[in-house]
Amino acid sequence: MTRSSRLLAALMGAGLLVALPAPSGASMEQPDVVSDNPANNTPVLVDTDPVDTTALHVDAIAQADGTLYAGGLFDAVANSPANGGQQFDRDNVVALDADTQELRRAFAPVVDGNVWAIEATANAVYIGGAFSTVNGVSTPALAKLNPLTGAVDPLFDAGFNGGRIEEIKLVDGRLIVAGKNARKLMALDPDTGRDTRYIDLGISDPVPNTRGGVTIFDFAVNPAGTQLIATGNFLTVAGEPRSKFFVADLGANEATLNDWYYEPLAERCATDNPRRVANLQGVDYSPDGTHFAVTATGQIVETASDRNRTVCDAVGYFDLADDTTPEWINYTGGDSVWSTAVTGAAVYAQGHFSWLDNTRGFASKCPEADLAICDARKGVGAIDPETGMALPWDPNKPARLGGKDFLATTEGLWIGSDSRRINGEERYGLAFMPLL
Question: Which CATH homologous superfamily contains domain 3-434?
Fold first, then answer.
């Protein structure tokens, strides 16, 4: 399948073993900031169509039993020169040895559209996205695969007719999936795909002047598996006003809406772009479950009174014990931030920004008077969770749109994006930053 046809399908679908991340979905705690020098053995995405200039990208990363799974939009991947440099056809999902980073040759499913979400266990790999078939089998938006071969599990059927899955987490025996499908946030039986009705929150009403309808963009679950935070395009949850963000408690028998809500999250940013008005994007809990980070697009507001209050083109950090004020907001000065990982040592963020600590910037610029304050950061950066200011970590990762996923492990930090290089080294789509 050509890259153009894959993109069309996506649009139509709308050794040492590296330890696993926290099973609930929160990022793993790390003792320090990772290196800014990427590992050398990581495979790279390969351009196979010299005419098609569509950017390739990795949008989802998961790990289980020493295997790293990555999904996105691509049709070929090459091992690093250290692993032989061979190129392999891989349609939108790939597996590699998490230690040596060599491709797993037996795992080669053919997915006909963008993979936006992955969850992996020792016995199964769940993929979600904007696809219709896997290995020619109709399985719209969500599929369960054999972790060794990529074969489709015929006993798993969520019953979706289309739509798009944006995130997947396996929590206490429930497969929680979210996106633009059915009830937007659902808990499925991980064996059959049947909706358990454990989550029935009535997520509804798109934000005015937006495109795409009601959608969950991202969610995270706290380390205890007792609470969930989510962003998206909606106004109402469980009959209560919850524009673009909500917190839900995961009880023994059902999920219920939590009272926590920071009211300025409902406010508009400066943009009129219908794809950016619903501005809140990536979320992650702190490893102790007491705080969370949320990222945003939307164009930063020009009004001085709204600075340090609204999360627009920024990363916001909040205490779950206080919904009246953020701990801090770190602004880019006018560029989107898509994803985040909170590891205790740092709050990592990525997008297509050029700055952090750019409180007064607008239209992607740092004011000349603030150049000594702004910190130049291309595509990725790390923020001190205590001070809210950029850490010295600066691997410089220029991006087109920007990266959509991180995965923290005991060995380091995986970064998935559309960037071709990081810290001057070729790492198209996927990079691993080791802990020293």
Answer: YVTN repeat-like/Quinoprotein amine dehydrogenase (2.130.10.10)
